[in-house]
Amino acid sequence: MLTIEGVHTYYGNSHVLQGVTFNVPAGKSVALLGRNGVGKTTTIHSISGLTPAKRGEIRFLGKTITGKTPHEIARTGIGLVPQGRRVFPSLTIRENLTMAARSQTQDAPPDWDLDKVYTLFPVLKEREKNMGNQLSGGQQQMLAIGRALMTNPQLILMDEPSEGLAPSVVSQVGDIIHGLKKSGLSILLVEQNFHLACGVADEVLIMSKGQIVWSGSPKELLDNNEIQHQYLGI
Ligand SMILES: Nc1ncnc2c1ncn2[C@@H]1O[C@H](COP(=O)(O)OP(=O)(O)OP(=O)(O)O)[C@@H](O)[C@H]1O
Fold first, then answer.
1. Is the C-beta atom of 82 inside 6 A of ligand 1?
2. Which atom of ligand 1 is nearest to the CA of 207?
3. Cα(38) to centroid(ligand 1), Å
4. Domain range holding 37?
5. Considering the domain boundaries, does residue 132 fall inside one?
6. 35, 41, 158, 189: which to mutate for ligand 1, most atoms within 8 A of CB?
7. CA triplet 163, 169, 175: central angle to 5 degrees?
8. 107 lines ligand 1 (CB under 6 A)
9. 91 is a domain residue
10. In the chain, which ranges are E strands?
């Protein structure tokens, strides 16, 4: 579904992604792990066009998306749940959601609409007139996920959804990700929370210094103390 091949991305002269290659198969969830600053967010931003790749190719559903604008890439069916949620603080919950609404094709009714997002996250319905900045961290995360779903994506990119959340809320986020997977969405998840990532992923990738240095199943990683220690500091 998503293919990343030999991607190199820079910030000015700083060569951050140094030949990143991996796939996200349709209907699967892939977790991208690694220490701080190795290039995980830059990978997400290269896919979504926010920090375009300088070399290499990114294909989605068989079409090249490298070189397209973030808006064009979103319209191909890639939803982004950004690091830090990026909820609009001075818009209501409802406005945060409806401003993202987009149907997949002009003729077909959208899979995700306000009602369906409210069914998934009833607390957002209860608080729909509240401003974005009046939500707890967990509720803001639900809003960020709901906003991405309103674009009717086929693939969702999630950048550290557990960041700054209490452990009970982190397990709720894990349940939400499981639910999204069940609904047929493909997921690329960047996480610092090793156990959350291993609990929801079909495949785990480890990044170090701008390259993928290990890949395997969550079980293979859980059984491999050396890799955990070397690349994740566990
Ligand atoms: N806007 C920017 N300008 C310059 N350098 C940047 C910028 N954003 C990130 N970097 C640098 O690029 C490298 C990779 O950063 P990136 O945010 O992709 O890492 P990460 O693996 O997501 O880390 P974290 O877990 O801390 O978010 C780091 O050295 C970082 O300092």
1. no
2. 21
3. 7
4. 2-83+152-232
5. no
6. 41
7. 100
8. no
9. no
10. 2-11, 14-24, 29-33, 55-60, 63-64, 78-81, 155-159, 186-190, 203-208, 211-216
Of 212, 209, 193, 210, the C-alpha closest to 201 is: 193
Measure 40 CA to ligand 1 centroid, in angstroms: 8
* Number of residues in the chain: 234
Asked if 3 and 23 count as a contact pair (C-beta separation under 8 A), the reply is yes
pLDDT tens digits, 16-32: 999 999 999 999 999 99
Q: How far is the CA of 144 from the centre of ligand 1 (A)?
A: 21
Neighbours of 45 (CB within 10 A): 23
Which of 85, 110, 114 lies closest to 99, judged by CA? 114
Beta carbon of 41 within 6 Å of any ligand 1 atom:
yes
CATH number (domain holding residue 50) = 3.40.50.300
Q: What is the pTM assigned to this prediction? A: 0.92
Cα–Cα distance for residue pair 66/45, rounded to 1 Å = 12
Distance of CA 195 from the midpoint of ligand 1 (Å): 23
The answer to whether residue 188 sits within a structural domain is: yes
In a domain, 189, yes or no: yes
SS3 state of residue 210: coil
Q: Which residues of 95-107 are buried (b: 16+ CB within 10 A; e: fewer)?
A: ebbbebbeebeee
Question: Model confidence over 153-168: pLDDT tens digits?
Answer: 999 999 999 888 888 8
Query: Cα separation of 6 and 73, whole Å?
Result: 19
Quote ipTM for the complex: 0.94
Instruction: Please tell me the total count of domains within the chain.
Output: 1
